[in-house]
Structures are given as structure tokens and as C-alpha cells.
């Protein structure tokens, strides 16, 4: 039986790379994204690898839209085996000026959206009786910060906690839940074709990473494939940091 992967924020960037990787491994793909043009373009890119690819325009913070997407995916593609909660928005604002509405919007998409999609997908996985894997996209910013990123950092810290909580709650249904914390991932080549750019990185950019390069969306996609596979069957409730070693490197201020 062909397995099905549902991916939020799958229209471009990391989400597009994840969708391509799963399609190339023979999965049927359901993409949800708020950007219709990007989502449809990604489905076209998947066609050489899978006949089972669909797109739904979706705001993951809307419970009814999430429920409809999951039900349509399960009906049209015959179930859900993997959910990747990749959709997210970023907010930079002076912490003294950040409005409650701005703060809540980031949490609604990044954190509440992951919960709503996970809950709906887990209900379907339980109903189908074949278990599944849920992967939440956290961030290294859940554990370290730059100024004026409170909303985003809080949402990603919440993802890490949500992950281990749901792993415990869903384990009895043979559903594993893990998170990935990307570091600096260069996504400009994975954007909608009209926005696509060729990235250029300086030696300083590369040297910030012990591995000697900036991350690629393919690095995250490969980890999603692994965490969804039987090889990771004993892994749940964990956070995998993928940052080329950037967060383990000590930095000294210069005079």
C-alpha cells in the first residue's frame, strides 16, 4: 500500500523540498499552503514522481479548514501515514512595541496550527488503525535568540514541548511524534519560480558552521524521511537539531 504524507507549508522553501523527497520515495502527497500559486506549482513539480499529489489552500490556524483538509486527504488519497507541520510565519518587532495581536497571530499559526493539524491527523491515523508519524518543525530559536524575535521564539519553544507531550499521549495508538530544529537553511532556490534566487554566501557565512556550509532544505527533508521510516521506530518525543553545528560553536566578542 502506498503511504501518504501530508505537509503544511508545502508550497515552497523547506516544505517544497520535503514534499519532493517523500514523492521521490513513492509517497502520495497532500500539500497545504496559504499561497495557492506556490502550492499548485509544487504539485506540478511532483507529477514526475507520483500520480497521487494534491493541494489545498489552507490557513492552519483555522480549525474547520484543517479538519476539511485532513478529511479530504484521507478520502482522496486513502489515509494519512505522515504529517509534517512545517507551516510557519516569522515576526520581528521591538519587544516594547510588539502588539498582542501580532504576538497571538504568530502563535496561532506556528503553535496552534501544529496542534490542530496533529490532532486531526492523529484522529485519522487512529481510525485507520495503521499508526503514523508526526514531525513538527521547531527551530534553533527555541533555544537561543536574537533581539526582537519573542513571538517566533515562543512559538517554537512551544513546539518542542508540544512534541514530547503528544508523543506520550499518542504512543498507545502507534503514533510517533518528533520535532526538528533547523538552523540557518538557505531556501531562496526553493521558492515560487517568480521569486527564486541564486544564493551567494560569504566565507564568514560558511565558517559560522563547523561543517563549513550553510544548510539546505534537502538536509531537513532527509531527516523527515528518516524520522518517518521504520528505522526510527524507537524514536519518539525527541527534538533533532540540524544546524551544521552552529549552536554548539562558542562565539567570543571582539574588542
Number of helices: 7
Q: How much strand?
A: 5-15%
Give the neighbour order of strands across the main sheet: 3-2-1-4-5-6-7
Helix proportion: 40-55%
- Main sheet characteristics: 7 strands, parallel
In one word, what is the shape?
A: globular
Q: Please give the alpha-carbon distance between the first and last residues.
A: 62 Å
CATH level 3 topology: Rossmann fold
From the alpha-carbon coordinates, what is the Rg to the nearest angstrom? 18 Å
Q: Encode the helix/strand succession as letters.
A: EHEHEHEHEHEHHE
Number of strands: 7
Uncertain spans: none
Examine the secondary-structure arrangement and name the CATH architecture: 3-Layer(aba) Sandwich
Mean pLDDT: 95
Q: Kindly name the structural category.
A: alpha/beta
CATH superfamily: NAD(P)-binding Rossmann-like Domain
Name the descriptors.
single chain; alpha/beta; Rossmann fold; seven-stranded parallel sheet; 7 helices
Brief description of this entry?
The protein is of the alpha/beta class and 255 residues long. The protein is built from seven helices and seven strands; from the N terminus they run βαβαβαβαβαβααβ. The protein has a single domain, classed as NAD(P)-binding Rossmann-like Domain (Rossmann fold), CATH 3.40.50.
Protein described:
- The relative contact order is 0.14.
- Strand 5, helix 5 and strand 6 form a beta-alpha-beta unit.
- The chain is α/β, with parallel strands linked by helices and 255 residues long.
- Helix 1 packs across helix 7, helix 3 runs parallel beside helix 4 and helix 4 packs parallel to helix 5.
- It starts with a strand and ends in a 13-residue tail after the last strand.
- The chain has a seven-stranded parallel beta sheet with strand order 3-2-1-4-5-6-7, sandwiched between helices.
- It is built from seven helices and seven strands; from the N terminus they run βαβαβαβαβαβααβ.
- The mean pLDDT is 95.
- The chain has a single domain, classed as 3-Layer(aba) Sandwich (Rossmann fold).
- Helices cover 41% and strands 15% of the residues.
Amino acid at each position: 500500500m502506498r503511504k501518504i504524507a501530508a505537509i503544511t507549508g508545502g508550497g515552497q522553501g523547506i516544505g517544497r523540498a520535503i514534499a519532493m523527497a517523500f514523492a521521490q520515495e513513492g509517497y502520495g502527497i497532500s500539500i497545504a499552503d496559504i499561497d495557492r500559486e506556490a502550492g499548485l506549482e509544487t504539485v506540478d513539480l511532483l507529477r514526475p514522481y507520483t500520480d497521487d499529489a494534491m493541494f489545498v489552500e489552507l490557513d492552519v490556524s483555522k480549525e474547520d479548514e484543517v479538519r476539511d483538509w485532513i478529511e479530504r486527504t484521507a478520502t482522496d488519497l486513502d489515509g494519512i501515514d505522515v504529517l509534517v507541520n512545517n507551516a510557519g510565519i516569522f515576526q520581528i518587532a521591538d519587544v516594547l512595541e510588539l502588539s498582542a495581536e501580532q504576538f497571538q497571530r504568530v502563535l496561532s499559526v506556528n503553535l496552534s496550527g501544529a496542534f490542530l493539524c496533529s490532532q486531526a491527523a492523529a484522529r485519522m491515523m487512529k481510525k485507520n488503525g495503521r499508526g503514523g508519524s508526526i514531525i513538527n518543525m521547531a527551530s534553533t530559536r527555541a533555544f537561543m535568540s536574537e533581539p526582537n524575535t519573542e513571538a517566533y521564539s515562543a512559538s517554537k519553544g512551544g513546539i518542542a514541548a508540544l512534541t514530547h507531550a503528544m508523543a506520550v499521549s499518542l504512543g498507545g495508538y502507534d503514533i510517533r511524534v518528533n520535532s526538528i530544529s533547523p538552523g540557518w537553511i538557505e531556501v531562496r532556490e526553493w521558492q515560487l519560480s517568480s521569486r527564486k534566487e541564486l544564493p551567494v554566501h560569504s566565507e564568514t557565512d560558511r565558517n559560522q558552521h563547523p561543517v563549513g556550509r550553510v544548510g539546505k532544505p534537502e538536509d531537513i527533508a532527509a531527516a523527515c524521511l528518516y524520522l518517518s521510516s521504520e528505522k526510527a521506530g524507537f524514536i519518539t518525543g525527541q527534538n533533532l537539531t540540524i544546524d551544521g553545528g552552529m549552536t554548539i560553536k562558542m562565539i567570543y566578542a571582539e574588542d
